[in-house]
Each structure stands twice: as structure tokens, then as C-alpha cells.
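Hi P.,

Sorry for the delay on this. The queue was packed all week, but I finally got your sequence through. Input first:
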Amino acid sequence: MGIGMKILVCTDGSEHSHRAVKEAAKIAANLKHVELYIINVCETVESSVFDYDKALMRAEEAKITERANLILREAEKVFEGSNINPTIILKRGLPGLEIIKEACAGNFDLVILGTRKIGGFKKLFLGSVCNAVVQRVSTNVMIVTH
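Then the structure:
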């Protein structure tokens, strides 16, 4: 068996982030000691749009939080039946920034993100969140594309 590791896997509910969660599960299954964290960063509601109706703003925030929790529960299902009990992290804000803050503060050994598979000239560029994380996090980052 392998050694211990602390892993942060990022999900936004997309198919490519689901592949990242599955890859994290494969890696974690081969480790003797693992701490696995799943993070979702949900958008924030622009209060200026809802200045006239605070109840509508609260309802919109509740919908966003409900969707984020659903995404996290779906990611958790990947680990059902395993000996891995992931810790769930729900943040609000800009995904790249919040993932960077969590990755830096949490002393992770590995951060795993998914990105859509692209070809040709476009493959020279990662998505904005992946690009931001790769450039700002001082730990290992795995980008899952398939």
C-alpha cells in the first residue's frame, strides 16, 4: 500500500469535474492514510440587483446553496462503499480565488481539478480556474481531462 496524503478535489457539478472526483477516488483507494476534501465554490448573488427585494435575494441565495449542496452530495456518492469519508467544503465567491485560498490554507499534498478536453490551438490554454490554481498554488496540481 501507499503512503498518506491530503487531497483537495474541486467540483462544480460538470462532467469534467466528476471525472476529477473519480480520479481522486482512484488515487485515494491506493493510499494507506488519506484525508480527502471535496470543495464546491458557488456563485454569490449581486445584492445591487436585488436591492428592491431582499426576500427575492434570499430565495435566490437559497437556490444557489441548494444546488451546491446537491453537487457535493453527488461527488460524495463516488466514495460510497469505500473506506474514504470525504470532508465537504462549500464556499461562496470566485471559484479560482476560493480554491487557491483553501489549497494554500489547508496544506494539501495534491489539488485535483477537471477541465474539458480540448484540441488544437486551444489546448495550449487551460480554463481560467485551472490556470489560476496552477499558477498560484505551491503544491502539486492534477488536471484531469479524460
